[in-house]
Design a protein that fits this description.
Blueprint lengths: L7 H8 L4 E4 L4 E3 L1 H12 L4 H7 L4 H4 L1 H12 L2 H9 L8 H40 L1
Antiparallel strand pairs: 1-2
């Protein structure tokens, strides 16, 4: 089995997320607050993929297996589960954390929008070249 490595862009993006304590090309370490908040929401019936996605951790980036394995590992951790059940640590995201997350996501959207526009321009150029060749 081959583990997918994160690209440099993905590592940069993940590092900027409040839910991520540290990240390398092979591994993500999540903040304790995120782990507890995640398990609290999971116990309330939310789907793991939607919990991760709401924190900017789309399964498309981190991988569905990673999401599943984290939930299983955290579910087996008595400290995390006790904190999640007691309502300890972070409840809803703080205003600062929410603001930082929105800022990161807006930056990602801007970056993707620029990439789409560049690709659209490139397609236009290629279509013009194709028309010239077909004449």
């Amino acid at each position: 089995m081959t583990k997918r490595q994160f690209s440099n862009t993905e590592v940069e993006y993940l590092r900027a997320l409040p839910a991520v304590e540290s990240v390398t090309q092979n591994r993500i370490t999540y903040s304790r607050d995120f782990q507890i908040s995640c398990m609290r929401r999971y116990l309330d019936g939310e789907r793991p993929s939607s919990i991760f996605t709401s924190a900017g951790l789309s399964p498309a980036i981190v991988g569905r297996k990673r999401v599943e394995r984290n939930i299983a590992r955290w579910k087996a951790d008595p400290d995390i589960m006790a904190a999640a059940k007691s309502g300890g640590s972070s409840g809803p995201l703080s205003a600062e954390t929410r603001e930082r997350l929105v800022s990161v996501q807006l930056g990602q959207i801007r970056s993707l929008t620029c990439q789409v526009l560049e690709l659209k321009d490139r397609i236009d150029v290629l279509e013009r070249q194709l028309k010239e060749i077909q004449r």
